[in-house]
Amino acid sequence: MALQNIGFRQPYNLQDTQQRLQSEEDARTSVTSSKKKVEQELASLKKDIEDMELVIQKAEQDKATKDHQIRYGTNRNGFIRGAVHMPETSNTMNLPGLYRLQDPQ
Asked: Which DSSP string corresponds to 35-96?
């Protein structure tokens, strides 16, 4: 049997090892740089999500306020909309569902 068929490797020389080391260090530097960029993008996206959540929360609060005003509040003319808490008939006005809270001034 010849030694070539057994599968022995040729020993690395110093120059090949140094080139491989430099290549690995360059790759690590590149990966580290890419990681930093991804982390910055992630931080930016998290901030955008937080901002959107605040906008959604404000919109939900505005909607709840408007729903409450529609159900129980008054309009610009001082009328209560709906007869939820008022008697069905009113002697002061003939408009169904609208009752004057106070006289306009």
From this structure: HHHHHHHHHHHHHHHHHHHHHHHHHHHHHHHHHHHHHHSB-TTSEEESSSSS-S--SS--ST
What residues of the chain score a pLDDT lower than 50?
1, 3, 83-84, 86-88, 103, 105
pTM of the model: 0.49
How far is residue 78's CA from residue 98's CA, in Å, rounded to a whole number? 10
Domain boundaries, the chain: 15-58, 73-105
The Cα 64–Cα 73 span in angstroms is 12
Question: What is the spatial distance between Cα 36 and Cα 44, in angstroms, rounded to a whole number?
Answer: 12
Please report which helix (H) or strand (E) contains residue 100, including its range: strand 98-100
Tell me the per-residue pLDDT of 8-27, one tens digit each, with 9 for 90 and over: 566 668 889 999 999 999 99
Name the one residue in this structure whose structure tokens are 């004057």.
Answer: 100
Rg (CA), the chain: 38
